[in-house]
Amino acid sequence: MKKLKKIESLSDQAFELLREAILNNVLEPGKLYSATEIGEWVGASRTPIREAAQQLANIGLVRVERNRGIRILPTSLKDLLESFQIRLMLEVPLVRKVAMIRTEDDLKALNTAYHNLFKAAEADDAKATLQADKEYHSALLKIAAVERALTIIDNTRNTVLLSGPSTIPHSRTCLEAFEDHQELHKAILNGDPDTAGKEMERHIINTARLLVTQESSSRENWNDTDILEQFSWIHK
């Protein structure tokens, strides 16, 4: 694990390093770590580690257990479904707004992100496709200029990452993942908010369905649940 650099607060650096380690499964979900143990890994004392742990607890990545340590929280089926529900509630209206307000400069930046997603998918590079997918969604939603919503969405996407393997390449190919964005992107270019909202809704529900079906086969206490039923109170 990387050592800390003394440029910003040690607790902020520790937060970023630990967040990255959790999302990349360097720290094992469900396992309890002592503050001393983690501090030795990242090169910090117990105080910044405790502060970083509290930040991580605030976004649902760990639980601080008094006099015991820091437990990395695994993602449950309930957590995963709630994450997709939150994405539906926020991202659908946000892309409607994006379709209505996007400028030519916005479209240039978005087209660049879309092209990068295509190139990664065309190369059949799963890791690069996942990163480009995240960057495309970030570029898209950034246009809406609702910062708090973007922070919430980023945290919910972290929950999905913690669920384990992504749908790429286990349930769909890189190109299939890219193609799942095509109609959404076209709607944004055309300035069509209704279609943009419907396509984002379809995209999120499709991703949820693929991931839950994929993970249900190997997880205890996970059922291959009816995704449409879980989201029926949100979408029409």
What is the number of strand segments?
3
Report the end-to-end length measured between terminal Cα atoms: 46 Å
The CATH topology of the largest domain corresponds to Four Helix Bundle (Hemerythrin (Met), subunit A)
What is the topology, as strand order, of the major beta sheet? Answer: 1-3-2
CATH superfamily of the largest domain: GntR ligand-binding domain-like
Strand content: under 5%
Roughly how many Å is the radius of gyration? 19 Å
Number of domains: 2
- Please estimate the helix content: 55-70%
Structure class: mainly alpha
Global outline: globular
Uncertain segments are none
Q: What is the H-and-E element order? A: HEHHEEHHHHHHHHH
| Main sheet overview | 3 strands, antiparallel
Keywords: DNA-binding, Transcription, Transcription regulation
GO molecular function: DNA binding; DNA-binding transcription factor activity
Organism: Ignatzschineria cameli
Domain HTH gntR-type: 8-75
List the helices and strands and how they pair.
Blueprint (H helix, E strand, L loop, with lengths): L9 H14 L8 E2 L1 H8 L3 H13 L3 E4 L3 E4 L4 H25 L2 H19 L3 H17 L4 H16 L4 H4 L3 H6 L2 H8 L3 H24 L10 H4 L6
Antiparallel strand pairs: 1-3, 2-3
